[in-house]
Every structure is written in structure tokens, then in C-alpha cells.
Amino acid sequence: MKVCLAALLAFAIGVALPTFAQQTNTPDPKLRQRLIAVIQKHNDAINSNDAAALAALYTEDAVIVEQEGPTFGRKAIEKHWADRFQKVHFSDLVDTVDEDSPHVISTDGKEIWATGGWSATIKGENFGPTPIKGFWSVIRKGDDWKIQMLTTNVTPAPAAPTGTTQENATVTPETRQELEAVDTKLDQAIDKNDAVAAAALFTEDAILMLPLEFAAERSGIFSGRPAIEQWYTQKFTEYHVTDSHGKLEQIHAIDNGMWAVGTWMHTVNFRHTPAYRAIFFVPVAHSYQIRKMFIEF
Q1: In this predicted structure, what is the pLDDT of residue 147?
Q2: How many other C-beta atoms can be found within 10 angstroms of the C-beta atom of residue 35?
Q3: What is the model's pLDDT at position 276?
Q4: Which residues, in sequence order, are CB contacts of 25 under 8 Å at separation 6+?
Q5: With 80 as the cut, is the pLDDT of residue 18 above it?
Q6: How many CB atoms lie within 10 A of CB 173?
Q7: Which of 255, 257, 251, 241 lies closest to 277, judged by CA?
Q8: CA-CA distance, 127 to 94, in Å (whole number)?
Q9: Which of 90, 102, 138, 259 suits 23 as a labelling partner, its CA being 20 to 30 A distant?
Q10: How confident is the model at residue 203 (pLDDT cuts 50, 70, 90)?
Q11: What digits encode the pLDDT tens for the residues 146-179?
Q12: Given 3.20.20.140, 3.20.20.10, 3.90.226.10, 3.10.450.50, which CATH number is that of 173-296?
């Protein structure tokens, strides 16, 4: 479900693509049919209001990001949907897959990224039936393409909730400070329009992903530090960027690193431009580097 989130926006892509620039993707018809088949299993579970069957389609370390914020881990995702199904009945869920999906993003073909739209009908005790719709973006991995990350929105977005997602207790203040220091260095490099310094904060095999509705020549998947440096170089050549300031709203220890989601503000050619960022940090030596970053404008 495509990434256009009003609250927290998450990112991320798996292993590297070999070349720079927007990925020109004409999907293998067999891969596309396989994607449609696994999506149908997801839809069947939601239409059956079956939280256990739904959660079984996710990896153990999966992340979902919705209007209310992120939910981390298969068990938490199952509880999230079980609680939702107690209040709301879902039916008629249908997904559409964007024409250029799926994108294979690993060398062994076991990790893919895809985007599309969705529509469904919901009914609560005191409302409905009500049609709703939105967009989605998904990362699937493994032999059975389980969901590692799913971001969704509802169009138009519902009112912001009063509560907030609690940060993972395993994230120490010292770790948060280290991640914020890397984020600050990235902001400083952007303020200086220094592509080399910005790219140096990414791992050699890092992934940068931007939404396809962004300027065509600068959208898509950028794989590897040289490609990311070239992306920043092109951006700084065309635009003067200042006042870059990010805020890591939520940080969670997961897999072999740290997921962080939050807001980002910067000025492009004297126009204030808000955005959302999701970043996967991995430990390197005595600090952290960026392994994956998704930006939503």
C-alpha cells in the first residue's frame, strides 16, 4: 500500500541494485502473477478478519507503518489486527498493483519491492458500511515472499490519534544520541550541498528510495554509495538546499540494526519543503551508518 503517510512514514529497501538512476522496470509476468497471488492471501486473511492467518504472512521482524505510526514484529502485528477486528469488520478488500511492480532488489531474487492501491469496506458497531481506499508499498523477502515492511495510508487520512507509539525499551538514550548524531551530520552535509559528505554516511551497499511521484529522473531506487553520491550531486546541481533538519520520532531495535522513522524539513530554492524519512541504521566500528533510507515528500 503506497507511501503517503500523514503521521509517520517508513522506508526501506533490502539488498543492492547494480546501477545508478531510476530503475526502468518491466516486470517479469511470472513474478507479477506470483506477487498478485501472495497479495490475495493477505487480502483473504483481512476479508476473513483472521489476525493469526494475516500475521503468518509476515516475517518475524516485520514492520507495518500506518496513519497511527509503526508496529514492530509479527506478534505485535497479530495483536494490532486482532484488536482492530474486534472493533471493525473488513470486507471486499481489493488491491491493485502498479504497472512497474514488482522490483527485484536482491541478487538472489528473494527480495522485492512493490507499490499499488487498495480499497475495502469497513463496518463498525455504530457506523458503516463505509468504503475506504488508499495506497501501499511493500518489501517482501524469502522463498515465500513474506512481508518484511508494509506501509499504508487511508485517503483522505483520518484524524491524528491522541496516543503515540512507545519507543522500544531496548533503545538506550546513548544509542538514540548516536543515531541523532549521524542524522545531524547528514543535515549538515545537505546544508553545505556536499554530496561526498552526505554519501559517506551510508554503507557501501546502502539503498536510497524515493517515491515514484517525485521528479522522474530522481525517483526510484538508488543502490550503493556511489549511486547515492551521484543522486545528491545531481540534486545539489539543480537545487540550492538549506535549513535541513530531521527529527527521529521513533527508534526501534530490530534485526541487526535500528529502524527510525520521523519528519524532515528543508528549504529548496527558498521554499520550505516538509517530508518524512525512514532510516535503517547499522553499527559500523564505533558508530552507525545508514543502510536503507526512504524519503516521502
Answers
A1: 94
A2: 21
A3: 79
A4: 100, 101, 103
A5: no
A6: 7
A7: 251
A8: 21
A9: 259
A10: very high
A11: 999 898 888 764 444 444 445 555 688 899 999 9
A12: 3.10.450.50
Residues 115 and 209: their CA atoms lie apart, in Å, by: 12
Cα angle 231, 232, 237 (rounded to 5 degrees) comes to 100
What pLDDT does 297 receive?
64
In total, the chain counts a number of residues equal to 297
How large is the greatest C-alpha to C-alpha distance in the chain, in angstroms? 56
| Distance separating alpha carbons of residues 267 and 204, to the nearest angstrom | 28
Residue 4 makes CB contacts below 8 A (sequence gap 6+) with: 134, 135, 153, 155, 211, 296
pLDDT tens per residue, range 34-80 = 999 999 999 999 999 999 999 999 999 898 988 677 888 999 999 99
Question: What pLDDT is stored for residue 201 in this prediction?
Answer: 96
Q: Is 237 helix (H, G, I), strand (E, B) or coil?
A: helix
DSSP string for residues in 162-223: SS-PPPPTTS-HHHHHHHHHHHHHHHHHHHTT-HHHHHTTEEEEEEEEE-TTS-GGG-EEEE
**Of 122, 149, 129, nearest to 58 (Cα)?**
149
In this chain, the answer to whether the domains covering 29-152 and 173-296 adopt an identical fold is yes
What residue ranges do the domains of the chain occupy?
29-152, 173-296
Residue with cell 527529527: 247
Percent of the chain with pLDDT strictly greater than 90? 38
3-state secondary structure of 107: coil
Alpha helices in the chain (DSSP H): 29-47, 51-55, 74-87, 173-191, 195-199, 225-238
pTM for this one? 0.56
